[in-house]
Design a protein that fits this description.
By secondary structure, the chain is of the alpha+beta class. It is built from seven helices and seven strands, in the order ααααααββββαβββ. Strands 4-3-7-6-5 form a five-stranded antiparallel β-sheet, sandwiched between helices. Strands 1-2 form a two-stranded antiparallel ribbon. A hairpin with an 8-residue loop joins strand 5 and strand 6. The protein starts with a helix and ends with a strand.
């Protein structure tokens, strides 16, 4: 009798212990400190990735197309093509929208105004010649350009980038137009008029242009027009 009671009590104890073990297994096990830290890091990364996916602009926000100054200058230089004339010494055709061109008389009148301006105040005159907004020395395809009669360097031109460049270095195909412009005033008396003809397209077709040149002090200046 006593043995049966003891056996029954032992079974109950074992059953209670098994129940406690099952409950313990059902509870979440505590994670070690290192494992817990790793989970926190991964959760943080997951949240950041989720935000980026929801907002594509956040990914692209820092992306910008940056051009270095040299590349910008290169792009501008590709769009700006200096076409050389002489003693107007460059053949840039700044034409009116109606494609009107200056005449020989208008070119001579402009050169006469330039001569008078140089004699009055050379520094102010050269500045005015380089100012494309000055209508006295810029009219349709007519404009004044000047170079130093000693070293050939431009002292006035509608495009500021030309100042200081040696006119003698310019050519139109096989025509050394810059050297011819420089030679045209060498040894001539001051105020004497020289002319120089050269070929340059007009409205996309071959045409003849003439440059009227003269020397005032140490300045060789001229205006070119289509004949």
């Amino acid at each position: 009798m006593a043995a049966a009671v003891c056996s029954k009590w032992i079974r109950r104890q074992r059953s209670a212990e098994q129940c406690d073990e099952n409950r313990a297994a059902a509870l979440p096990r505590p994670r070690s400190g290192r494992r817990l830290q790793r989970c926190v890091v991964l959760a943080t990364i997951a949240r950041k990735c989720s935000r980026r996916l929801k907002s594509p602009m956040a990914v692209n926000k820092g992306l910008h197309t940056i051009r270095s100054p040299s590349r910008e200058n290169a792009m501008r230089n590709t769009l700006f093509v200096p076409v050389f004339a002489t003693l107007s010494l460059i053949l840039t055709a700044n034409l009116a929208s109606a494609e009107q061109f200056g005449t020989a008389d208008e070119a001579r009148a402009m050169l006469d105004r330039a001569i008078a301006a140089l004699k009055s105040d050379e520094t102010t005159a050269l500045r005015a010649f380089s100012d494309a907004n000055n209508k006295q020395f810029h009219d349709r395809d007519l404009y004044v350009s000047c170079f130093n009669a000693s070293d050939g360097k431009f002292t006035a031109f509608p495009s500021p980038g030309m100042i200081g460049i040696d006119v003698r270095t310019f050519k139109l195909g096989d025509d050394p137009i810059g050297q011819r412009a420089f030679d045209a005033i060498q040894g001539r008396p001051e105020g004497a008029m020289a002319t120089m003809d050269y070929n340059f397209p007009k409205s996309g077709k071959p045409a003849l242009k003439q440059s009227l040149e003269t020397r005032v002090g140490n300045q060789g200046c001229g205006v070119a027009y289509y004949k």
